[in-house]
């Protein structure tokens, strides 16, 4: 995913600055030690305007993650919500990807220096047509079992903390090097957990299964999929799942802000289902697309108009 240079401005610590001129000091505490938090948010064009999907939920999670690492964000949630809307307007975008990030300054160095440095907040946004090949929405992607296990510290795996993503990067790069599209991580108990940056669902005998979130992120898209599935009358089971359950599934898919709902059609060397998107995955994908674009009023509270 390449950044679209059509974006003109990034909001940093209270004001918008030119996109290419927004700088972070080389001695930023977060650059050296990874202490910081971020979010990934999507906006979509609707019939009347643009709208941000589950904005309040994403911002709340940003603040909750910051609290867990003892970082106090020097703005209110309402202020950060407004900034994300303003960033889209400032960059003339009705849809795109939004990245709020909280990072520590460069006033002091060392592990003990957290309380001696500034807390900085930035919000960037840019066009994001598709995270993966658009054809993957129908034909699906291939994944492999990763040799890099899921972090076993819930603080690391359940929050979008900057320094915890090295493991996911290693897992993804390993998968790409082996000609797969993504990786599936295994938790410390030997159960399937999540992708490098996505939650996992599988379908077996018309029941939707998803791993418990003891060691993986309880993604906002994941929560949305569960709600949508239940509203459609599907049975949803959050449980421990062996790798074999994925291999033997009738259907499987990833969910996430970036991938939305993307089918999985190959695990290691095993084809899932008929090798294309399954019927329940397609139904959920279609309904999700309707919701994010404002075509289902029952979920209008999930959309914040820009």
Walk me through the structure:
The chain is an alpha+beta fold and 306 residues long. The chain folds into 2 domains: 9-126, D-amino Acid Aminotransferase, Chain A, domain 1; 136-292, D-amino Acid Aminotransferase, subunit A, domain 2 (D-amino Acid Aminotransferase, Chain A, domain 2), CATH 3.20.10. 27% of the residues lie in helices and 26% in strands. The protein is built from 9 helices and 16 strands. The strands form 2 sheets. Strands 1, 2, 3, 4, 5, 6, 7 and 16 form an 8-stranded antiparallel β-sheet that branches. Strands 8, 9, 10, 11, 12, 13, 14 and 15 form an 8-stranded mixed β-sheet that branches. Helix 2 packs across helix 3 (77-90). The longest helix is centred in the first third of the chain and has 14 residues, at 55-68. The mean pLDDT is 94.
């Amino acid at each position: 995913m390449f950044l679209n240079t059509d974006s003109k401005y990034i909001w940093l610590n209270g004001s918008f600055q030119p996109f290419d001129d927004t700088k972070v000091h080389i001695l930023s505490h977060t650059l050296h030690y990874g202490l910081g938090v971020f979010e990934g948010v999507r906006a979509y064009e609707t019939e009347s305007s643009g709208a941000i999907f589950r904005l309040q939920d994403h911002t709340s999670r940003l603040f909750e993650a910051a609290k867990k690492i003892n970082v106090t964000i020097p703005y209110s949630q309402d202020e950060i919500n407004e900034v994300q809307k303003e960033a889209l307007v400032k960059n003339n975008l009705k849809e795109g990807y939004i990245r709020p990030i909280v990072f520590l300054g460069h006033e002091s160095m060392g592990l003990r220096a957290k309380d001696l440095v500034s807390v900085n907040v930035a919000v960037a946004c840019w066009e994001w047509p598709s995270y993966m090949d658009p054809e993957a929405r129908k034909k699906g992607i291939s994944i492999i079992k990763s040799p890099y296990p899921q972090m076993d510290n819930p603080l690391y795996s359940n929050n979008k903390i900057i320094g915890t993503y090295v493991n996911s990067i290693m897992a993804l790069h390993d998968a790409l090097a082996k000609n797969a599209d993504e990786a599936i991580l295994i938790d410390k108990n030997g159960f399937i957990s999540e992708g490098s940056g996505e939650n996992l669902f599988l379908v077996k005998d018309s029941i939707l299964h998803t791993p418990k979130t003891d060691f993986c992120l309880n993604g906002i898209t994941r929560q949305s999929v569960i709600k949508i599935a239940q509203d459609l009358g599907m049975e949803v089971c959050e449980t421990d799942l062996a790798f074999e359950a994925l291999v033997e599934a009738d259907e499987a898919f990833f969910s996430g802000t970036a991938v939305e709902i993307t089918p999985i059609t190959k695990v290691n060397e095993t084809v899932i289902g008929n090798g294309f998107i399954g019927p329940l995955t397609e139904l959920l994908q279609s309904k999700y697309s309707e919701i994010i674009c404002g075509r289902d009023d029952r979920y209008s509270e999930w959309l914040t108009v820009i």
